[in-house]
Amino acid sequence: MAPSADAGNYDYVVVGGGTAGCVLANRLTADGRHSVLLLEAGPEDRYPWIHIPIGYGKTMFHPVYNWGFHTDPDPGMDGRRIYWPRGRCLGGSSSINGLIYVRGQPEDYDRWAAAGNRGWGWRDVLPYFVRSEGNQRGASAAHGADGPLKCSDIGEKHELMEAIIAGAGELGVPRTDDFNGGVQEGVGYYQLFTHNGWRCSTAVAYLKPTRGRANLAVETNAQATRVLIEQGRASGVEYRRGGETRTARARREVILAAGALQSPQLLLLSGVGPGAHLAELGVPVVHELPGVGENLQDHLQLRLLFRCSKPITTNDDLASWWRSMKIGLKWLLTRTGPLAIGINQGGLFTRVMPQSASPDIQFHFATLSADMAGAKPHPFPGFTMSVCQLRPTSRGRVRLASRDPMAAPSMQPYYLSTEEDRACAVASLRFARRLAASTSLSPYVVEELRPGAAVQGDDELLAFARAYGATIFHPSGTCRMGHDAMAVVDDRLRVRGIGGLRVVDCSIMPTLVSGNTNAPVVMIAEKASDMILEDAAG
């Protein structure tokens, strides 16, 4: 191998210019005392459809801006390889996600703290949610108005969503206008990470304002290949850019913010992980850490598709050239309408399992139907109820598929591998059907396209979940925070047994939060930046 080119010395080298990495780049350079190199494997976020909220469908399968991963064949899902999109540009998955602002439940974070992770209870993390938030509604005890990450209300009510909300009320689920106010249970419109009709990714919110700072260097199309570890301490990062291998040195710390799939992959490539697995691939063991890549969790999405009785859906807007022109002009002139909203408008959190003390399922309601998320809409009026179990008990893993750092990792979610998860899948589908049959919503339902009326028994519903279930894009937990033998980082997110090395992304979650992961990852990065600066000050 040719010798690496010297890319210079920095106080901090951050690997991954995604959701967390952009936050870190901003906060660690704010006082001018520390130099930071931010490495992003993908390009700048200049693709126009990244920034238009409805562009979600344009980036779902994009060969440049999306990693386009697939899982290993999953035995719990009929041996299918399931498509896992992940953002590959500045902003990472915050540049291509569904825009939904959900923090999870206070109980999620209190469970982390109860497991021995000091400083991660709800009262500890709430100030960081508030600090990050620039809410259209203004400041309150639970919300921030001046933070970089802008979130907005959906400004227009939709007839179909109003019918869903009314139908949920018939089932005892109350209407709410704030899923992040402390009580999650309810049904209503989501707030979205948008600002004046544009997507607000962390690249827009955190990184763009920093690009003129002399103490911040950003390199795109720069894929990390390994962490350099010398005498038990991370000293830098080796990466590839423009066909050249380069080395960047870190005087203080290397910070991995590459996400739940690639942060563990990079640790493994660097010889940090389960020794037996590394030995199988001929990777020299630098530090035995058995939990690297274990504890993989994800929300499994079950999508019920319906033909709608009225031409009021996004399918109809996109099927007609004149209606497409109308909504396009509306967005151009007012930054409102379907193009400013994205795909999912509303949500519902409720309980379907008898042992649950708080919501255990989440719905995403889309005024659109397609054979799979991000695919071409159906040529008729349609809508989708997507439901997922909030706190799955199934656990998977991430491993190396190859010693080649440019190859995708091996990802095995083991969906539906526990009886609890299988029972919750069936119960959530039955609740969705009760909602569709409600007095308020049933007039809008011509037929259930999927699973379809013929699918009735528990075994049949479970078979549907195995045949059609897919990720809702929240892989987490693979560099788990904790203090036991299987923990990868401590409660200050330092990799156990290696100096000068941290992980700051959703991989550190001991358990998956009850909802979408974008806001929690921003919170984690905000809190981590304070801890890093505290440690630097001594």
What is the third-level CATH name, the topology of the largest domain? FAD/NAD(P)-binding domain
Q: Which CATH class of the largest domain? A: Alpha Beta
Count up the domains: 2
CATH superfamily placement of the largest domain? FAD/NAD(P)-binding domain
- Low-confidence regions: none
Taking the sheet with the most strands, its summary is: 7 strands, mixed
Q: Would you tell me the structural class of the helices and strands? A: alpha/beta
Determine the N-to-C terminus distance.
39 Å
Total of DSSP H or I helical runs spanning 4+ residues: 14
Give the integer mean of the pLDDT values: 96
Report what the structure shows.
The protein has helices at residues 19-29, 48-51, 56-59, 106-114, 122-132, 159-170, 202-207, 259-269, 275-280, 314-319, 321-334, 419-436, 458-468, 518-537, and strands at 5-15, 36-39, 69-70, 83-84, 133-135, 149-151, 186-189, 194-195, 198-199, 216-219, 222-230, 233-241, 244-256, 272-273, 287-288, 294-296, 300-308, 344-350, 361-366, 382-389, 396-399, 410-412, 445-450, 470-471, 501-503. The chain has 2 domains: 1-147 and 192-296 and 396-409 and 475-538, 3-Layer(bba) Sandwich (FAD/NAD(P)-binding domain); 155-189 and 300-389 and 416-468, Cholesterol Oxidase, domain 2 (2-Layer Sandwich), CATH 3.30.410. The strands form 7 sheets. Strands 1, 2, 10, 11, 12, 13 and 25 form a 7-stranded mixed sheet that branches. Strands 7, 17, 18, 19, 20, 23 and 24 form a 7-stranded antiparallel sheet that branches. A 3-stranded antiparallel sheet has the order 16-21-22. With 538 residues, the chain is α/β, with parallel strands linked by helices. The two termini are 39 Å apart. Helix 9 links the parallel strand 14 (272-273) and strand 15 (287-288).
